[in-house]
Amino acid sequence: MAKVKIIGTGSYVPGEPISNDQLLKLANIEFDTSKLENKLGIKYRHIAKLREIEESTADFAVNSVLNAISDAGIHNDDVGLFVVGTDTPEYISPATALIVQGRIQKKETFSASFDVGATCASFTSAFNVAAKMLAGDSTIKYAAVTGVYNMPAYVKDGDVFGYSIFADGAGTIILERTDDNDSSGYIDGQFMTDGTQWDYVGVYAGGTKKPITKDLLDNGDYGLQNLQRLPGDRNVRLWPMMMNKLLDKVGMKKSEIDHIIFTQINRSVIEEVMKVIELPMTKTTCVMDKYGYTGSGCIPMAFENAVKNEKIKRGDKVMFIASGAGFAVSANIFTY
Q1: Same domain, 25 and 169
Q2: What is the Cα–Cα distance from 303 to 11, expressed in whole angstroms?
Q3: In the chain, what's the furthest Cα-to-Cα distance?
Q4: CB 330 within 8 A of CB 128
Q5: Residues 268 and 199 in one domain
Q6: Are 330 and 190 in contact, with CB atoms under 8 Å apart?
Q7: Rounded CA gap, 113 and 96, in Å?
């Protein structure tokens, strides 16, 4: 089977960055800015709604894909597979990836376009699916895999938790199908799921179970909802477990990992996990200080940041680990 490697990256965030002090005024909320900065590491974010920018998920995704295509040095029409990983889609139907393909290629093509929804593990799940699909189909040369987040669109007025944590953003990688002798390439992925935990946090209105009605709106039973508190040690337990499971699967040692990128929701948790797995902080990247928490967009955004700042170089062994509510966890390992 052929190999698949990353040849381009691109990101997009809407508008000017919003500092924590600016957020207090724009969202008309109150919270402890020092705690947010010192524990979670969040200092700035981009939120289209608060900047009164008329952009949403598809706009973020399209711009990140175009930036990645430019970085890869290929033509828009060269892409034969568009996969969008998100749990904040442009519409319930049609898929956001279809909209992205239409805006970028502007016509009917023999390309595949579909979404992957696995809460905040959507991008890493999409990466695994796209890499294996591309490697197994000789008719597809390039794929655009996007992680995108627009959760602030679902945050209700006065929601301190929602506005202080969640932000808008998208990141895209361009994959190329290459010969097996290429030194770069996707190695494998790993999944973990526990659907019994579906009722912790999410957007529960708008689907077939709870279609939007006037009564639903009047009762405030819509948008982002926290039904139960998530366990505080959840990611500290899950991420090392995922790393070890994937390393065992591919027959590699922890010492072979050059860089590892986690879901960018809490810097203190990442620091704790790096101690648990006995790797230095120099082997990870954190971007929540600039972007807040961008869900499925955060890992490709952090990856691009690490590549552009030469923290990740060609030949490096890189691992992604993402977790989301529901719960879904997925990981990737590849040679950049």
Answers
A1: yes
A2: 10
A3: 61
A4: yes
A5: yes
A6: yes
A7: 9
**CA distance linking residue 235 with residue 266, whole number of Å:** 10
In the chain, the amino acid numbered 179 is: D
Tell me the residue range of the domain where 165 lies: 3-178
pLDDT tens-digit series, residues 147-177: 999 999 999 999 999 999 999 999 999 999 9
pLDDT digits (tens, 9 = 90+) for 177-199: 998 888 899 999 999 999 999 99
**CATH number, residue 310:** 3.40.47.10
Instruction: Check whether residue 194 and residue 244 sit in a common domain.
Output: yes
143: its two tokens:
């794929």
H helical segments located in 1-121: 20-26, 33-35, 57-72, 96-105
The structure tokens listed for 74 are: 């290929």
Q: Write the pLDDT tens digit of every residue in 89-120.
A: 999 999 999 999 999 999 999 999 999 999 99
Q: How far apart are CA 214 and CA 154, in angstroms?
A: 17
End-of-domain residue from the set 178, 201, 219: 178
Residues paired with residue 10 on neighbouring β-strands, in sequence order: 172
CB 317 within 8 A of CB 333: yes
Q: Do 156 and 253 fall within a single domain? A: no
Structural domains counted in the chain: 2
Domain match, 153 and 268 both: no
Which of these three, 160, 178, 196, is where a domain ends?
Answer: 178
Distances in whole angstroms, Cα of residue 313 to Cα of each of 259, 285, 307, 318: 10, 13, 7, 10
Is the same domain home to 97 and 122?
A: yes
Q: Are 262 and 238 in contact (CB under 8 A)?
A: no
What is the DSSP code (8-state) at residue 29? -
For the record, the structure tokens of 315 come out as: 């030949």
Task: Give Cα 33 to chain centroid, integer Å.
Answer: 25
Q: Which amino acid is at 334?
A: F
The answer to whether 189 touches 4, Cβ cutoff 8 Å, is no
Three-class HEC string of 265-285 = CCHHHHHHHHHHCCCCHHHEC
